[in-house]
Every structure is written in C-alpha cells, then in structure tokens.
C-alpha cells in the first residue's frame, strides 16, 4: 500500500511540474477534490475526447452526438430514480470524525486480501522460474484458494446487503472484518446511513417563486429525454446510438485518489437503442468493442480486466466494468450496462409523452432497450498518464524520466530545437514551425543545452524532437529524435510533414479499430 501511495504522489507531482494538472484555486491552498487542467493537460484531455468521439461518431453510421444542458427539468431526476435512489452508504468514525463510504471500506479490505494473493504468486514465481503457471497456482494453492473463497464470501454478502438496503448488516460486516479507520486506527463506527449524491440549487431570482434544480449527476438522462428529437430529425432506425461528452457533478462522501474520484468530472457516454430481446447480444458486442478501443492505445493488455457486477443497478439486467490497473490498483475505468427499457419507460410515465419507436419491419411500436457505454474522461486521463510515466536507466548508467503517452494523444507532437541561438538556425527553425503548425501542435524550444531540452521533452511526453543544425542550412535536412527509443535519423525538411503524419496521426489509430 505504501508503494502505491508513493507512486500516486509521484504521478501527482509530475502532473503539476509539467503543466498537466494543478490543484484548483491553488493560491488559496486549493479546494478539496477539485483540479484544473494545465496547458499540457487540456491538450491531452482534448485528444482523448477526439479519439473517443471520432471512434463513436465517425466510425459508426448509426451513432450521432448531442450536447444536452447541465440543468434539466427536476422531474427528470424523479423519473430516473436519482432523487429516491441515488445514494451511497455513509459511515462515520466517532473518534477521528472522518466520513467514509461503507462499501469502499469493505472493498479496500478485499484489495488487501488480493494483495496477499499477488504476494504469494510473486514468491512462487521466483521459486519456480520460467515454468511457473500463475493461473494453475491460483487454482491449486490451498492458501490462495482460502483467500479467494474469503473474497467471494465478503463480496457476495456486501452485494446482498446493499441490494436489500440492509445497512445494519453492512455495519456488522465492517465490524466482523475488523476494519479500522485508516486515519486513526479506531473501530468505533456510527450506523451506516444513505447519503444522496446530487447537488441542489435554485432557479429564479425571487425566493418564493424559485424552483429546486439539480446539477446533473450523469449525462445519460440528457440523451434519453432527447431520444425522439434525435430519432425523428435524424430519421434514425433501431439499432442506433446517441453519444455525448459533458460535465457531471456528484457530492461524493469521500472524493480521493487524485482525479479518479471528484465532485466535478467529465463523462463520455453512448446510449445504444436496440430491439427488445436483442439487448444481451448487443451488450456482449459492445463489451468487446470497448475493450478493443482501450487496447488499441497500447497501454498494456495486462492493465485491463472485466469485472461483472454482482449487484445490478435498478435499471440493469446485465452490467460489467472495464477495470484498469491504476497506481492504487485495479479500479473501474468504464461501465457497460444493459439498461433495459427502464429510462425511456420512466420518462414516458412521468412526462405523459409517448417515447416509442415505430418499427417498419415489425409494423408495431415499442420502447427500445438500451446498451450504455460510460467512461470517465478524467479517469481515462489518469490511466493514460500514470501508465505512461516511466523512470528508465540508460546504458551509460544515467536515468531519465519519460512520459510515453501514445503519440496520437500526446499534447505536443514535436519540438523544434535550433542547436544554437545564432547563425540563422532560429530563423530556419521558425520557418519549419510555421509550415507544420497548421497540421500539428508544435513547440519551439531554444533554451538550455540540446541534452537538457531532450530530457525536458521526454518528461513532457513529446514524441519527436527536431533539431536544426548547421548542416540543415546546407542540405535542408534535420535530425529527428524518437522519444521512446531515443534513436535519431536524418530527414529532409520537405518530408517532415509526411513523416510526422504516419507516426502521430489520430487517423492511423482509428484505422486499427476497423
């Protein structure tokens, strides 16, 4: 756990030092669980958005995008179940006065057992060497099997208690497991109670005439209430999807782990409307599509896994998470849910408007079923950033810090580096910059030695450094250095655009999805 905490602190420190993420209101000592994206962070964030948006909209003829308002009619949240059921189980420690999500305390306890399993596997792998089979070891080792049974029993009991809203048993489970307050070590807990996560505000300038509104806790409902608007104006035929990227707000009991869990965050969601009876087939197909989208970035297949939900949300008949190995362990990155017809049916009942689709093949009206894919943009940012940050020992014994962000997502695609600040080199460097800036985000950098500039751009995550030297004036060639391999090659200036296009283009990444 200490190693994980150190790794996360290192990620946070690097993100601030190199202009990716700053604590919000930093000059006022910040605001809890609120962050600002810096000059490099906003570029990486926008590139992730573009990768998701284009993969959804441009690569699918039957998916379109919208941008719904953050404020929605308050009945929206009554219909969706958020007013009555959008709660987290909250527990306080009487001694430390700290507040926690009760289910997260149990999940953290499970994570400690999982760490014990990994420790056993690591020890065995060292003992048996190359012939070691981790999966077989997990199935046959008595101690690991006891751990796995313990995890299953705890998970099943927690899921049942939450489903039954048996909060007394959730507290009893915490007590039986001997879970202590992470801050004080105290086991003196209050009862578990439900805590609604929506932020409320008032619409109107006169108090007596004001109306209670909520900051949306998810973007999905903006899609559902626009189902007919999009279907009719776009002449969409089932199956079809509606995608959206937007801010959402949740009054989290404990917002923590950097940008993983915040009270203001951004979601990338797509609701795919299908014929009833075909939803589970579509659900499985979208699970595979979304995993392919992630693996296409090359962050490492071992960093991903599916987790099927034991406790289903009130609207779902199937649900799974794509979990990612963050600095603090495997946690949810994206959810894929089969939402049935719950949302459209609820909105039909509460609005009095008919939200049905006329199927010309079946010659009948029905409420479509929905498959949802929902990914947190901030979590995706953290997944990319944390997995890309490396400390490498070089052949000469020195070390470098390098941010190996996939080139198509990197904020700065290339840095233009005149070898010295005279002899016409800066002028030629600016000519190259002015030629390339319409196609790529390029940075000009002439401060410090060329070696220090290479190291700086390694740490920023710039895929290529283009050095202009005296030979460039003579033969119109430049040296291009690759961030990951540190190899260098001589390229003619006129070929720079095509050279970079092949290596940093988002199009090349998208073509791999086809």
TrEMBL record:
UniProt keyword Protein biosynthesis present: yes
Transmembrane regions listed in the UniProt entry: none
Record: residues binding ATP: 250-252, 260-265, 332-333, 376-379
Keyword Metal-binding recorded: no
Main location: cytoplasm
Gene3D superfamilies recorded: 3.30.40.230, Anticodon-binding domain, Bira Bifunctional Protein, Domain 2
GO cellular component, one term: extracellular exosome
SUPFAM superfamilies the UniProt entry points to: Class II aaRS ABD-related, Class II aaRS and biotin synthetases
Localization terms from the record: Cytoplasm
Residues that, per the record, bind substrate: 101, 218, 265-269, 372-376
GO biological process, one term: glycyl-tRNA aminoacylation
Domain Aminoacyl-transfer RNA synthetases class-II family profile span(s) in chain numbering: 116-418
Documented EC number(s): 6.1.1.14
Listed GO MF terms: ATP binding; bis(5'-nucleosyl)-tetraphosphatase (asymmetrical) activity; glycine-tRNA ligase activity
Enzyme class label: ligase
UniProt catalytic activity: tRNA(Gly) + glycine + ATP = glycyl-tRNA(Gly) + AMP + diphosphate
Entry keyword set: Aminoacyl-tRNA synthetase, ATP-binding, Cytoplasm, Ligase, Nucleotide-binding, Protein biosynthesis
HAMAP family tied to this protein: Gly_tRNA_synth_B (MF_00253_B)
Family membership: Belongs to the class-II aminoacyl-tRNA synthetase family.
NCBIfam families membership: glyS_dimeric, PRK04173.1
Subunit structure: Homodimer.
Function: Catalyzes the attachment of glycine to tRNA(Gly).
Protein name (record): Glycine--tRNA ligase
Organism this protein belongs to: Candidatus Ornithobacterium hominis
């Amino acid at each position: 756990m200490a190693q994980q905490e150190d790794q996360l602190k290192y990620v946070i420190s690097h993100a601030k030092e190199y202009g990716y993420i700053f604590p919000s209101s930093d000059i006022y000592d910040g605001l809890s669980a609120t962050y600002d994206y810096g000059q490099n962070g906003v570029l990486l964030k926008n590139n992730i958005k573009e990768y998701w948006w284009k993969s959804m909209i441009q690569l699918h003829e039957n998916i379109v995008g919208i941008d719904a308002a953050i404020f929605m009619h308050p009945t929206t949240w009554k219909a969706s179940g958020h007013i009555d059921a959008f709660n987290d189980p909250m527990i306080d420690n009487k001694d430390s006065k700290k507040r926690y999500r009760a289910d997260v305390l149990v999940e953290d306890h499970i994570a400690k057992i999982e760490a014990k399993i990994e420790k056993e596997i690591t020890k065995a792998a060292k003992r048996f060497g190359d012939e070691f089979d981790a999966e077989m070891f997990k199935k046959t080792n008595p101690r690991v099997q006891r751990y796995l049974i313990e995890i299953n029993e705890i998970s099943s009991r927690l899921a049942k208690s939450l489903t039954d809203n048996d909060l007394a048993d959730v507290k009893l489970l915490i007590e039986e497991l001997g879970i202590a307050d992470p801050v004080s070590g105290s086991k003196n807990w209050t009862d578990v109670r439900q805590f609604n996560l929506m932020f409320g505000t008032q619409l109107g300038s006169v108090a007596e005439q004001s109306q209670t509104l909520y900051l949306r806790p998810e973007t999905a409902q903006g899609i559902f209430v626009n189902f007919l608007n999009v279907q009719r104006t776009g002449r969409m035929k089932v199956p079809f999807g509606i995608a959206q990227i937007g801010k959402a707000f949740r009054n989290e009991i404990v917002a923590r782990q950097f940008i993983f869990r915040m009270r203001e965050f951004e979601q990338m969601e797509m609701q795919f409307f299908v014929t009833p009876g075909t939803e589970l087939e579509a659900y499985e197909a979208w699970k595979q599509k979304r995993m392919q989208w992630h693996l296409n970035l090359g962050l490492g297949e071992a960093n991903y896994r599916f987790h099927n939900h034991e406790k289903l949300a009130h609207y779902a008949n199937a649900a799974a998470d794509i979990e990612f190995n963050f600095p603090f362990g495997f946690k949810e990155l994206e959810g894929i849910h089969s939402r049935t017809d719950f949302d459209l049916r609820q909105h039909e009942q509460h609005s009095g408007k008919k939200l049905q689709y006329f199927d010309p093949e079946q010659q009948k009206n029905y409420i479509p079923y929905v498959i949802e894919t929902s990914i947190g943009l901030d979590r995706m940012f953290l997944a990319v950033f944390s997995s890309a940050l490396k400390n490498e020992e070089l052949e000469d014994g020195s070390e470098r810090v390098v941010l190996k962000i996939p080139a198509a997502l990197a904020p700065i695609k290339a840095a233009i580096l005149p070898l010295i600040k005279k002899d016409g080199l800066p002028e030629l460097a600016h000519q190259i910059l002015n030629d390339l800036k319409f196609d790529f985000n390029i940075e000009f950098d002439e401060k410090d030695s060329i070696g220090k500039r290479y190291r700086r751009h390694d740490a920023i995550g710039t895929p290529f450094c283009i050095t202009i030297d005296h030979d460039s004036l003579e033969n119109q060639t430049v040296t291009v250095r690759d961030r990951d391999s540190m190899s260098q090659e001589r390229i003619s200036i006129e070929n720079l655009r095509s050279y970079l296009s092949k290596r940093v283009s988002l199009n090349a990444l998208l073509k791999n999805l086809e």
